[in-house]
Amino acid sequence: MTATAPAVAAEWQEWVARNLALGVPPETLTDVLLDAGVDAAAARAEIEAALAHPYLRACRSLAESYGWAEALLETYGELRAADGGPVLERRHSLASGEFFERYYFGHRPVVLRGLTDDWPARRWTLAGLRERFGTVPVEVMTGRDADAEHGWRYDAHRTTMPFGDYLTMVETGGRTNDYYLVPRNEAWQRPGLAAMRAEVLPPAGLVPADVAAEDMTLLLGPAGTVTPLHHDNMNILLCQVVGRKHVRLVPSWDRHRVYPRGGTFSHVDASSPDLGRFPDYADATVLEAVLEPGEALFIPVGWWHWVRALDVSITVSFHRFTHPASAVYLRPGVDDA
């Protein structure tokens, strides 16, 4: 017997189960499904079937057992709000001691100015990089526009090509999110790019002078590239070398409001949040900044961030710091759906 296709799409079935497990009233879910064009009878039948399924009962039990964690996050958020709330400060010539005390160990993001003023990399151009390093093979994520889940399906999008060919694509292709040289590559570890890496000077007092290539990443792409809302499992110093980037940040303690998936990603499109499907995101704190060339953004471990390139953009990031206790790494026990 041929199985009948579900009357409600699989992504909506998952959404129904998740929200029922979180305690959202069935009537609210029905209204959202109807607004999305789902047949009324099919919507009610789907919710009734989910409510009766033993899997949902198990999910609800698990959700209740994690209630204490959300309560703790809420309490921490209230304490931070009473202390002035999360803000994104901009600082120039910040001493390393204050950086670690106030921002690194204070779990606060900050935009830093003056860290890259002496970098030879600040003189990079696409034409110059193509002339010097054009034959070096690099790994690029391609075909991103055709896959809404490219952020966590990166293995399906890896393409190796000469660096020069990619730079020409960036230079001539206009605004697009279809291809991007992202951190999930080993560009800095390729011998052919050693001279390029040498033009990036680790910020004194913050990053070890002998920082290893594997503790740095290179991001290079056209205007229009978007990194979906996600968090990193370590502290990051994001240094903007060429072009501008628009960044949105959500505090780590708002994790339960961003609908996590895949461990480090979010179901929410932070560029245009669907508050009908993800209503708790409306209560998340969102900080914004446009990073100019020469600015650096410290992103604390666990802080969620969404990034869009406003221009052709080159970014270098570090995830190793000088403080002896700075090797902090978040190891989540179980990935979210």
From TrEMBL:
Per its UniProt record, what PROSITE patterns does this chain match?
JMJC (PS51184)
* Occurrences of domain JmjC (ranges): 171-337
| Signal peptide interval | none
**Which SUPFAM superfamilies does the record associate with it?**
Clavaminate synthase-like
What is this protein identified as?
Answer: JmjC domain-containing protein
Task: Name the source organism.
Answer: Dactylosporangium sucinum
